[in-house]
Specification:
- It is built from 10 helices and 19 strands.
- By secondary structure, the chain is of the alpha/beta class.
- The chain has 2 domains: 171 residues, Quinone Oxidoreductase, Chain A, domain 1, CATH 3.90.180; 141 residues, NAD(P)-binding Rossmann-like Domain (Rossmann fold), CATH 3.40.50.720.
- α5 links the parallel β13 and β14.
- α3 crosses α4 and α3 crosses α9.
Length: 350
């Protein structure tokens, strides 16, 4: 069968090539691929920045944002042919740390986990793939067009879980949310904020294209003229940072209301230097009981939370998040950055 592959560590090696059918040892569910999302992680792997192939192999099948339909499922698995499913990305390390041993591989403490389509395990960018029943999540059939958004939504669901757990250390009734960044993660974070009844604001830099309208369609407020203007009406109780831009990260830390929570989901590039008044920032965080947390990846619980969030979202709004659908055989086009793109997906059924 044909699959999207890369030779990890080798820039320019992205290609659709013949690979063997997925062996039964890869999981008890045989799944027909429907779609796979393309994100910054995929582009970085394609650029040779990181990624590892399965043991004994040169190539890695890409794709960690999956969507498929079960073709074969053993009795007692909890799944049946025709079920719409997504595969969980991360697997615990072979000698589990405490977090992995307790079903929290997203919080792995020793870094020896593996990830589908990223490190040590083939991904989902193929017409057929296998997954263990314990690492599959069933979706509402109505999400057959947009269920590929589940993996990024799971990242956001985890972030919200962490925010709410931290908030529960004392009385916590947030009213205002600021999301920095209107990419897929930022927009999905805003969706979950609106679902929680928060006055939601989104900050980005573009003034036209789909992003401002997508924010407004949620009933949220879009800002494009800087952080100061975005918080001028009122300081946010929660900031969910999804840009990784250092100036925005540190600026957001000092813009929350007292007892504010800033959750960082964007990954900053190294080597960026900015001027920060560390003393003033420390003083504000301490005296206001502020909290700063980082959040990445997700476990099966978060996938289930994400599935519930997508099932209750407006189907038309979710559809508009997907800017382009590219056939697998033209997969390299999905890695091209184009004006107006929000989320690009590979169509595995064409």
């Amino acid at each position: 069968m044909r699959a999207l592959t890369v030779r990890p560590g080798t820039a320019g090696s992205l290609a659709v090539r013949e690979v063997p059918e997925p062996p039964a040892g890869d999981g008890d569910l045989l799944v027909a691929g429907v779609a796979v999302g393309v994100c910054g992680t995929d582009r970085e792997i394609a650029a040779g920045e990181y990624g590892t192939a399965p043991p004994g192999r040169e190539h890695l099948v890409l794709g960690h944002e999956s969507l498929g339909r079960v073709q074969e499922a053993p009795p007692g698995s909890g799944f049946a042919p025709g079920d719409l499913v997504v595969g969980v990305v991360r697997r615990p390390d072979p000698e589990p740390c405490g977090a992995c041993a307790h079903g929290e591989p997203d919080m792995c403490r020793n870094g020896r986990y593996s990830e589908r389509g990223i490190g040590g395990l083939d991904g989902f960018a193929s017409p057929r793939w296998r997954v263990e029943a314990g690492y599959a999540v069933r979706l509402d059939p109505a999400l057959h067009r947009t269920g590929v958004l589940l993996e990024p939504t799971s990242v956001v669901a985890k972030a919200w879980e962490q925010i709410e757990r931290v908030g529960a250390r004392a009385w916590f009734e947030p009213q205002r949310l600021l999301v920095t960044g209107a990419g897929p993660i930022g927009l999905l974070a805003a969706l979950l904020g609106v679902q929680r009844g928060l006055d939601t604001h989104v900050l980005d830099v573009v003034t036209d294209g789909p992003k401002p309208e997508l924010v407004r369609a949620l009933g949220a407020t879009y800002h494009h003229d800087g952080l100061d203007r975005a918080v001028s009406g009122a300081e946010p109780d929660v900031v969910l940072e999804a840009t990784g831009v250092s100036s925005i990260v540190f600026g957001a830390l000092s813009r929350t209301a007292p007892y504010g929570i800033t959750c960082l989901t964007g990954v900053s590039a190294g080597g960026t230097r900015i001027g920060v008044d560390g003393g003033a920032l420390n003083r504000e965080i301490v005296l206001d009981n502020d909290v700063v947390i980082g959040s990445v990846n997700a476990n099966r619980r978060h996938y289930q939370q994400a599935a519930e969030a997508l099932a209750t979202a407006d189907a038309g709004w979710l559809e508009r998040l997907i800017s382009r659908r590219v056939p697998l055989e033209r997969a390299t086009e999905a890695f091209e950055r184009r004006d107006g793109d929000v989320k690009v997906v590979l169509d595995l059924e064409g």
